[in-house]
Amino acid sequence: MSATAPALRIAGLSKTFGGLQVTRSVQLEVAEGERHLLIGPNGAGKTTLFNLIAGDLRPTAGSIHLQGRDVTALAPHLRAQLGLARTYQIVTLFGRDTLLHNVKLALLGRSPQRWRQWGSFDADPALSERARAVLDSVGLGAKAQLPLEQTSYGEKRRLEIAMALAQSPRVLLLDEPLAGLSAQERETVTELLRGIGRDITILMIEHDMEAALAFADRVTLLHYGEVILGGTRQEVVSDPRTREIYLGH
Ligand SMILES: Nc1ncnc2c1ncn2[C@@H]1O[C@H](COP(=O)(O)OP(=O)(O)OP(=O)(O)O)[C@@H](O)[C@H]1O
Prior knowledge:
The strands form two sheets. The chain has a six-stranded mixed beta sheet, with helices on both faces. Strands 2-1-4-5 form a four-stranded antiparallel beta sheet, with helices on one face. The protein has helices spanning 46-54, 76-81, 99-108, 125-137, 153-165, 183-194, 209-215, 233-238, 240-246, and strands at 8-17, 20-30, 35-39, 61-66, 69-70, 84-86, 171-175, 201-205, 218-223, 226-232. It has two domains: 1-83 and 169-249, 3-Layer(aba) Sandwich (Rossmann fold); 93-168, no CATH class. Strand 7, helix 6 and strand 8 form a beta-alpha-beta unit. The chain is α/β, with parallel strands linked by helices and 249 residues long.
């Protein structure tokens, strides 16, 4: 591992489903601490790329390095242990459990305690304290004892981000963190994202261009699974191909 290695380096990454090539020799580097935005029209292959990075899908060809380490063949939980986190698909998880309980589970995700007896789980004061701190950090402290299913959509999105952050990631993958939120909720989540320290590198898919561009240092445009262009926010926004492909005019 080298100190100068990018947080994430993707080289020649391809994925084929049956006859359909969804990821086409993607090259992408995300520097340590960078906020990198991934854009592209529907079906461009953005989510597939996230699934490949997280290890939920195996590439047909190419490689993925995390902080200089080749993780291409590693299982998702091993990538998580190396500091890769993505937001949980919370809608499918533990709806009847409290917010506090859900965060405790996320905290245990990377802890050796996970493999201990369950007996001490609810009684562990240190774990509860850390979980409460996580909830406070996203403004949900007062709702700690509320069942997840009784929270608003915006609160769930904040909790998703909190649970990913609870794992102390080095690289965070955010899949449309602002999707489906009201203007006020978008503002709250944007503030939350802005507050994340530069010790965490962020790769984000987002369709809300205004909010996403305000946040991003660099941008990569995907189209039909291929990187069309990548560069600083200014470079990508002023490139006519962005308007043509992404904005459709
Ligand atoms: N498991 C799969 N089997 C077959 N085809 C798939 C599979 N997963 C994705 N695809 C196809 O790959 C293409 C890219 O899908 P993907 O969801 O990655 O795009 P996207 O850029 O995230 O789109 P969106 O913005 O709509 O979320 C689509 O044509 C999709 O139908």
